Amino acid sequence: MKLISRTEEIILVTVYKLGKKAYGVAISDHIAQKTGLNWKFGSIYSPLGRLVENGYLRAIEGEPTPERGGRRKIYYEPTESGIKALKEIQKVNSAVWIDMPGFETEK
Amino acid sequence: MINKKTTYPGVPVIAERILKLFSDDLENTKSGDFEEEYNENIKLYGVKKAKLLYRRQILKSIPAAAGQSIYRSLIMFKNYLRIAYRNFANNKVFSSINILGLSIGMAVCLVIIQYVVREMSYDKFHENGKNIFRLRTDSITDGKLTDSGADCVAAAGKAVFEDFPEVLDYVKLSRTSAGGIFAHKERKLEFREERVYFATSSMFNIFSFEMLLGDAEKALSEPNNILISRSIAEKYFKEDNDPIGKSLSFNGVLDYSVMGVFEDIPDESHMKFDILTSFPTMLRYGDWVENSWAYTTFYTYLLLKDGTDPVDLEIRINESIKSQVEEIRKEWGFKPVLKLQHLQDIHLRSNHVREIEQNGDFRLVYFMLIIAFFVLGIAWINYINLSTARSLTRAKEVGVRKVMGAFRYQLIKQFLTEFMLLNLIAAAISIMIMQIALPYFNAFTDMHISFTLWLSASFWAGFILLILTGGLLSGFYPAIFLSSFRPISILKGKLINSVKGRGLRKGLVGFQFASSVLLIICTLTVQQQLRYLQKKDLGIDVEQTLILKGATVSADRSRETYVKRVETFKNELQKNPSVISTSISNFVPSEDVWLILGARKVTDTVERQKEYHIMRVDHDFFDLYDMEMISGRAFSKDFQSDERAVIVNETALDHLGFSDPESALDQEIIMKNNEFKIIGVVKNYNQESLKEAFEPTLFYLTDLIRGRCAIKLNTGNISETISYIKNTWDNYYPGNPFDYFFLDENYHALYDSERQFGKMFGLFALFAIIIACLGLFGLSYFTTIQRIKEIGIRKVLGASEMSLVRLLTRELTVIIAVSNIIAWPAAGFLMVKWLQEFAFRINLSWKVFFTGFAVTFIIAMITVGYQSLRAALSNPVNSLRHE
């Protein structure tokens, strides 16, 4: 399988977790909530674009809303190969981490 | 679907626009995210903070967005390149005309840039460069500028250095009697060295010439020391690596000790010297070399403190020397005025008498830059014209791309990419052309341009910048033009109106013609002037004259033996039947007369004294050069009194204040406190190059001359005669190298730089015209193709072939006429400027202007006429069959 970048991985996971509600603001908020990483929109668009291009995500246009200045939301949703990729990433990750010795606890 | 934007109050739209600049694919939908967050933040933190956060969000998004859009555009770029390649391959006329024209244009540009860079780089290598000034002297007599020398009076340098604290250091150089024959006695090596100067001790502190061995300052402060260049050291001392302390004999009378070796002086220095003799050595000529305010020929350079205002300093210097100036005026009749001149202005902007060497001329540099601009400009114009003229062929592609969703800016980008690619290919070819053609070019123009700019990063930066800006400028219009087509009308098969853009095309073709006419007129005028320089009657006979450089090493210790040796040497030469006559003088025609003295009528006061060029000659001088006496007689051995006689030329006659040649005879003049009687007036002749007017010149007789020996030969076996002369020379003047030149060649050499300029100009003008013709050929090719149906219909309706040709060429005739009218005054102006350089010059002739018109007209008619004729002769069936 093709390994995707760490950034792409985080975004792919987030999109999956958000289910039907994954769009720009939501993704960015979720990542900020869970990890404390304050990613700007600019930096999530590129990986999102790449994920779409590689067929892991598909983009669906939503309804325009007034608070967006009349512009549509773009919702993202994992495709089948996206879900497959997620499974493999999980497998690889846990395989890598499983025999990780614990850190020595500091006092 | 809500189309209208319901923007909440206060969205800072500008920030969003900035972001869009960096990102292609930031569609409306996505940037909605920004606005949504903004509105959320208003609720949370209030408007002010929200705006701040919004801006921050946008700004920080830029890098990632830009990265993405570069990534995307690379994918498109690959497609653009492929299409570009297909287009080039598809239309070979179009692409070869463009590439050929551009690469020739760029190659010409490269050569010119190389030339210009070299001219501009003179004296730039000195660390103190910007603070070094040359102090030179103007002489004012009777309120008029009578002499404007590159050199300075002897005492000025030191005085200025001592009186003004902002003058940190000074150096004084003199060439007077510094050159001569240097010999290594043990090795029996003797050579005539001419680039020799006396120099004071600060020479190497002020200038950044590189010392290899020895302490320059110490060496130059004691008498009889010399510093030599690396090549001189190799010449005299060969494998001996340590010449320090060894001695070289000078003119057989003095021994100089070598106290240092310096690196050879770079070409880009306005002064080049091989040997420096310590200035105290010069004191043996008298202490005037230190403290005279009247004798010039001392090149003086000052090192000023940072930030000194040279204009102000110059005024204060002249203020401070008032008393000395007054003394000089009383005694000599002229007032010396000191002038400051920036070191780095000397090579291109200084044209005084007694310059150290022939300087360049910034006007020529500008002329060259103008040509470079024209040549490259013409090539770029070809692209504009050809690509807009054949827009019909690209129109379908534009239509399809637009239908498929291409934005206009993407199309512009595509066309620009294509043009840039064309430029890059041309640039690569131009460098190859340069590499191959440079040796031929150097041989043709007798220049030594080498492509050294390879190594300089700033050159590459400049070259790329040039291609980019020029490319963008000339590629932009076609790109805008081509991308403007409306897909509906194109794809419906509606004929695109090719009238659009025709006005601009006409203008640009007009520009090409105007510049071609300008270049033709300039080239022809320059050639005419050069021919005139070589053909003009100098007033003297310079053919078949061999000039020996004088003997400076002499065994004669007394005047009698010296004179006797000269006499017997001349007689010995005369014995050879090929030798017609011989004459010795301090200067021969074609040389700069640097010996200048003040003189006046006996009856005049000292205030009326003027300066005259002094020629010291022997009895045979006037006869040998076949000079015409307009009154009186030449020097003669029959008159013992000729020792105190002087012959003047017409200009001197005028300066002395005599009304006609007859009345001057037997009048007395005072020169150097001695009285001389005028015995003859000689017709003016061109002693120096035709750039200079006739100088007032006095000739007097002396037998103690060591300058030049002229030998008039008949057309016998030249090489045999020369070997006879050499043998005689070696017998009479052992220890002196046998150096000679031919007088006519020396005259010829005076115009070397003009000839180079003429050749370069002519060559580049030719290229410019060729490129313009290429463009015209292409343009008429495409326009006739587009009008082929019109021609067919006209023919069917009965138009004759001639009337069709006339129809197709009429427009061009008008363009050529208009561009000639524009180019003529410009060319006239430039050429009048250039001709002003020469005291003797041709008048601009109407024939040249007419030739400019005729040449462009004929060439244009041939190129366009051929296409038109072909179109007119073709069978209308072929062009109309498909309708």
Helix count, DSSP H or I runs of 4 or more residues of chain B = 29
- Broad shape of chain A: globular
Please give the alpha-carbon distance between the first and last residues of chain A: 42 Å
- Helix fraction bin of chain B: 40-55%
Q: Could you name the CATH topology of chain A?
A: Arc Repressor Mutant, subunit A
Distance between the termini of chain B: 47 Å
Can you summarize the main beta sheet of chain A? 2 strands, antiparallel
Rg measurement of chain A, Å: 16 Å
So what's the overall shape of chain B? Answer: globular
What is the SS-derived class of chain B? alpha+beta
CATH superfamily name of chain A?
Winged helix-like DNA-binding domain superfamily/Winged helix DNA-binding domain
Rg value of chain B: 37 Å
Count all strands of chain B and give the number.
24
Summarize the structure.
The complex is a heterodimer of chains A (107) and B (883). With 107 residues, chain A is α+β, with helices and mostly antiparallel strands.
List keywords for this structure.
heterodimer; A: 107 residues; alpha+beta; Arc Repressor Mutant, subunit A; 53% helix; globular; B: 883 residues; 4 domains; 13-stranded mixed beta sheet; 6-stranded mixed barrel; 24 strands; disordered N terminus
